Queue: 2 jobs
Job 1
Amino acid sequence: MTGKLSAGDEAAPRHATLLGIGSYRASRVIPNAEIVDAIDSSDEWIQQRSGIKTRRWAAPDETVQSMAVGASRKAIEHAGIDIAQIDAIVVATVSHMFQTPAVATAIAHELGTDRPAAFDISAACAGFCHGVALASDMIRGGSAKHVLVIGVERLSDLTDVGDRGTAFIFADGAGAAVVGPSDEPGIGPVVWGSDGEQFDLIRQKEDWRDVLEQERPTMPHLVMQGNAVFRWAAFEMAKVAQQTLDKTGLKVDDLDVFVPHQANMRIIDAMARSMKLPEHVRIARDIADQGNSSAASIPLALDRMIAEGEAKSGDLALLIAFGAGLAYAAQVVRVP
Ligand code: COA
């Protein structure tokens, strides 16, 4: 018991911020008309219940890895740093079809980085905000200087096109952010948690071993108890949004931008109403033509708002992500 452990990097920066953001939209635009016959539905019903008009599905060559690399290259360019400066890559996904190794390692290799820490996290639709929270803490703890956080999904692989409850919702794409050190706080404290009692409201239908025992094995698709998810998201997440503002020391009036997980337009509207968001707060509504791309939805939506001038550098944006688990995470960030 003579040795004394070093506490690590004593000179670690006090603050972290988003330095850049980038996204990649899957190329196939699938209108409601193309999916309604298989689920005995209509364009009108889908728009009224979810706000979705079209969704993006990947072409065969648009893989989880390739979409993530596309988004990452843009985020790194936006951040204005060299790829070699990235020393950790965190990928949030549930649709990388290999149990191991983590897709983060292959993404690192394709990007040409110099042996960064690289790992995947599984927090479903809440994954990107979990990744941002981890990155912020890694930087402030001194274990990384620049962290690339990626949210990527190819949910069309896990969607049963004949399931009335999910076929119209899920989508494909990637979003990435570079998180780095900062003189001022650029990422507020996270409010995160889970409600394991409801862990099975959104889930993979069966485990891979059960799939193999079927006479005609099919993909273990995602299934969802839509009504219960809707109630939880619309009511509980507005409370989490308020807790996040309280913890950050902000009022709803201080916000410029609100970027909730793009789950369903009715959930977005219900949250905005119960939070009493003032008129000046611009709300992300990427769901209408992107669909719900789970871990990719928040960076896709924020990147679009920046491109369209709805979010400006320095704006305060409340991010809130929620989904299977039921897991959630929220924080206020400065728009890069
Ligand atoms: N097309 C047409 N009709 C449909 C349908 C479809 N795809 N799916 C269900 N229906 C019908 C049902 O048969 C039922 O008809 P009935 O009243 O004659 O019995 C009616 O619509 C209501 O069904 P229900 O299952 O209660 O639908 P809902 O109102 O809950 O809407 C969702 C379904 C999925 C749109 C809704 O539950 C929802 O948005 N949930 C949240 C989903 C979400 O955001 N998930 C992502 C979280 S990460």
Note: The chain has a mean pLDDT of 96.
Job 2
Amino acid sequence: MMFQATRPKSPPLVGLAKEHLESLRRRDFLAGAALIDGRWIEGSRKDAVVDPATGEVIAQVAHCGAADMDLAINAAERSFAQWRGLLPEGRGAILRTWASLMLAHSEELAILVSSEQGKPLAEARHEIGYGAGFLQWFAAEGERAYGETIPSHKPASLLQVRMQPVGVAAVITPWNFPIAMITRKAGAAMAAGCPVIVKPAPETPLSALALARLAEEAGVPRGVFQVLIGDPVELSAPLLRDTRVRALSFTGSTEVGRLLLEGAARTVKKVSLELGGHAPFIIFDDVDVDKAVKGAIDAKFATSGQDCLAANRIYVQRGIYNAFVEKFAAAITRLKVGHGLEAGTDVGPMTKSSVAEKCRAQIRDAAAKGARVISANQNQEFGPNFVVPTLLSDVTDDMLISSEETFGPVAAVLPFDSEQEVLARANFNEMGLAAYIYTDSLRRALRLAENIEYGMVGINTASFTGPPIPFGGWKQSGLGREGSRHGIQEYMELKYVCFGDLVV
Ligand code: NAD
């Protein structure tokens, strides 16, 4: 079965319009200078930032090296005493002002995200609100970072547990959520009292630098929030080596996460990792097929599929398998592919060409092993970073897509017969980030919620993230949690204090 789009060929993709450029320049959002020790550094070299849809250069950013990182670590360490010394509500007030500035400039930030990352503008707008939400959430969590008093097992003693900031935190972030992955980490660290050094993905530095501009305006003191762009290995080496960097938080691939964990072991840092996913999306035959199709579209094609929560294996019970595939294919062909800034776009380009290549390799592999390939929009011309939304049906467990994260708009559908079978297949994966279950049976939902080996489970919903929830994975999907009341603990140490000889 092959679906072909009937729309005429689209005109060439157009990126940032003149009025966009003017509004971004007015805010210095295209200036490209790094922020080190309260100063905007132009750098002796520049790195180009490219619109992934058109290949056009949209800005040049300062290229920082290891010596710049050493300066940043010195500045962060110097700022620590003053920052941790503020009352929690003092830090909270600054974080809230920062969030308000993000919201006040949400349109410019969204245009920036869409331009360098490629995601549809509506999703970029959503990311700004989501990202600001973490600053607001952690502003309050910092004010609630209670310690404990332990009923004493020693005579005449008072046993206290205090929560104290760990020290300088290094934050290495990906390109798929260039704003929210920074605020989810920096909000927690800064609320705890830690200065933060951000090394964003080289593909999306402008979003990080825009956040730094707004942080400065919000009154974040010198050295408390710094952003350096450059070669990831060169910039991460000083962060890993330096004993003054006490916490490291990373979101990205499991391969790089492993390297950073190994590197951080030498100085025994507090490490939190949010790594790859391979979400099973399990649909039982007692559900409304249309609701399941809507959920699968949302869980697969958000962020153009470049999402660690993306449904990577859509298991459909045999009783509704054919009906689901037919409706899902029809919904996929309706997705509009285009530039993120173009009205109505559902799926933009892949931010990195390597991700597009990986998608194509998975499609080739699945087709060679017998999957049916159904794709939309094949008559249209897009750039090399685009992957048209594609459905692979009759996928089997031996195909690459069944075990390797896709990170693009390619949906794999696999039939199953029984609950026991699908649970075993869902758990047979080293990733354990998110899982989705669609069923009308409460008993089955409760059983699966208990037995599925994933850190986050959506039952009859594809939408469950936000500041209040503990975001994180089991197994090789990561270590630690972000957001929620747990997130701040990644940047705090417990200190137990025993007061003895208290005769009352
Ligand atoms: P990546 O892990 O290489 O990049 C993420 C971040 O790590 C970026 O800031 C990058 O500059 C930095 N980095 C890369 N190599 C490094 C090193 N040796 N030392 C220190 N920092 C380093 O991810 P990628 O190659 O851009 O994407 C590949 C795959 O990773 C994707 O296809 C996807 O499977 C996964 N990924 C997951 C997430 C997520 O949200 N969990 C985000 C991005 C990528």
Note: Residues 172-174, 176, 201-202, 232-233, 236, 251-253, 256, 259-260, 274-276, 308, 352, 355, 405, 407 surround nicotinamide-adenine-dinucleotide (CB under 6 Å).
